[in-house]
Amino acid sequence: MFFIAQKCPNCKIRGSRVQNDTMMHHVKDISRMGKAIYFYCATPECDTIYYSDGEIFTDRMINKEIGFKKNSSPQSAICFCYNYLKTELYEPSVVKKINIRIENYGSRCDLRSPSGKCCLKYIKKIQKEESQD
Ligand SMILES: [Zn+2]
To answer: What pTM does this model have?
Structure first.
């Protein structure tokens, strides 16, 4: 099935499709979740984490702080499988360290990462943007 990602109602940037199984691990009050198709908002400045038609779950409604969001604390995670922190986001070696762990122990980004996707994608993008500044 093909989905065209909807725009986040808050920042108006297109998010990425997220599985309901992923959300079940991160939304505090899962009784609020409907049967909708949900999306993950990756915009650093936006406090929306998940959204669908007419529904928004903000950063305060999920049980972990996301290190990729501007408002999160320095101790929030950027890698949820191996608990690397926002303070390590710009360390060049962090990508290598996470890769070694994934190679040896695998990963469960689908359940542990709020986006449902591997954190390396976001870390590499942010480090690349930083090196171009
Ligand atoms: Zn947003």
So the answer is: 0.91
